[in-house]
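Re: the request from the purification team.
They wanted to know what the chain is likely to look like in 3D before they choose a buffer screen. I agreed to run a prediction and write the result into the notebook, where they can find it.
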Amino acid sequence: MTNEQTAVKATYFSIIGNTCLALIKGLAGFFGNSYALIADAIESTTDIFASFLVLFGIKYSNRPADKNHPYGHGRAEPLITFIVVGFLVISATIIAYESVLNIRTPHELPKSWTLYVLGAIIIWKEYSFRLVIRRSIETNSSSLKADAWHHRSDAITSVAAFIGISVALLLGKGYESADDWAALFASVFIIFNAYLIFRPALGEIMDEHVYDDLIENIREVSLEVEGIIDTEKCFIRKAGMKYHVDLHAIVNGTITVKEGHDLAHKLKDTLREKLPELGHILIHVEPHLYS
């Protein structure tokens, strides 16, 4: 299975899971008098649209290079991640606004059975996070990572709702708003989580240097190629699920231009074979002159 297929499959998993959970949370929140659950349902609803965006981003970013996009379409992925972060911020704002209104408005205590619903949701969302984050690491997908953190964010907001409802039920009359305070706390966490998702995507767009481990792997593989004496500069920029590499390779300065050209191609082929996550590879041959 290709990286794109793996990422698409994980995204479909998110879409189906979030659709079911949005319905369950919404109904449980309405009939169980829990705004924290309704807030959770709002977030899951935005997660559905966010996952559809991630799906579009993954498919678009994996289009092959063309005349107008010689490096491919990979940069669409972090752009989609920015939009997904926007969905998170919007949902957090709505939850916070509604929480404040509910804190100021007298209402009934949540139903005790909503805790069982939340318990099941927390377990499922944490499982979903672990599955999708594993797939994001396998595929090097920043937008899929954002989708995974939607699941973790959802799990934590559900934990907050669980605590709020528990406090309201244990302390009784006068503590009905504990549920709403939990939703308000969850909205703050969602905003913080949005920043954590936004920051790496920004670094990807800005070609930030954060790939030391991959550079070390590239240097090690390069030295396995007969004729490569050493490596100098190595620049990496990520686009979608691929890493584009500019590498300076040091070779014997007395060989012919054709031999140097052939050696560069041999190095490129070896890097692609050993490190399949690499995309466009540019090899610059540097001569080493023996004294």
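For the purification team: The chain has a mean pLDDT of 84.
Please add any questions underneath this entry.
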